[in-house]
Amino acid sequence: MAVATPAAAHVGAGEAHGFMHGLAHPIGGLDHVLAMVAVGLLAAGLGGRAIWMVPAAFLVMMAAGGLLGMAHVALPYVELGIAASVVVLGIAVALRLPMPTATAMALVGFFAVFHGFAHGAEMPVDASAAGYAAGFILATALLHAIGVALGLAIGRAGRAGANVSQVGGAAVSLAGLALIGGWL
Fold first, then answer.
1. Torsion angle of C-alpha atoms 67, 81, 101, 48, degrees rounded to 10
2. Rounded to an integer, what distance in angstroms lies between the CA atom of residue 112 and that of residue 171?
3. 159: which residues sit within 8 A by CB, 6+ positions away?
4. Rounded Cα gap, residues 110 and 149, in angstroms
5. Residue 7: what are its φ and ψ, rounded to 5°?
6. Which residues, listed in sequence order, are joined to residue 11 by a DSSP beta bridge?
7. How many CB atoms lie within 10 A of CB 73?
8. In a domain, 7, yes or no
9. Phi, psi of 127 (to 5 degrees)
10. Which of 1, 32, 72, 110 is the most buried (most CB within 10 A)?
């Protein structure tokens, strides 16, 4: 009994616990959902290689931010950075801002660090870091895919679709302002 190790065969421990918490974390916050779907909408609006490169840049930089959060590195203004991402990405979608793919990648990558940091810093103590990271990266990729799919579908609707996209982007921005103001 002195050298026995835990079996870790029960749900709620180890890898499964970490993965499920990581998967749920991005979906559990309106700020994260709005920003991640907006990244997909922005990518779809830019078209071409941006459709996959912009979300990929977000995922890479979010993972880096997650590592910083897990390592308890100090990063100021995390919540403000997350709320600002909702506002800025919503504005980019609403105004249909034309920008080079590299610029869009840098923009979303900057904000992704804040989102990733929050995910990493809020990792449960008893969760597997690898499982948790895999969960929040998968959830984020799925939210990006939803945004891209919505953006592509809206894009096929012509001018009416562009109007829907602009109204949606404006609504995302307003929600971001409400988050900053503490109203949501």
1. 90
2. 20
3. none
4. 23
5. -75, -30
6. none
7. 12
8. no
9. -90, 150
10. 32
Name residues whose C-beta falls within 8 Å of residue 80's C-beta, 6 or more positions apart in sequence. 180
Q: Cα-Cα-Cα-Cα dihedral of 19, 21, 27, 28, to 10°?
A: 180
- Structural domain containing residue 32: 16-181
Burial of 3 (0-12, 13-18, 19+ CB in 10 A): exposed
In a domain, residue 10? The reply is: no
pLDDT in single tens digits along all 184 residues of the chain: 444 444 443 344 445 678 888 888 788 889 999 999 999 999 999 999 999 999 999 999 999 999 999 999 999 999 999 999 999 999 999 999 899 999 999 999 999 999 999 999 988 888 888 998 999 999 999 999 999 999 999 988 888 878 888 899 999 999 999 988 888 7
Both structure tokens of 45: 């609006």
Match 């922005």 to its residue by tokens.
42
Q: Is residue 5 assigned to a domain? A: no
**Other Cβ atoms within 10 Å of 111 Cβ, number:** 23
Is the residue at 20 inside a domain? yes
What's the domain count of the chain?
1
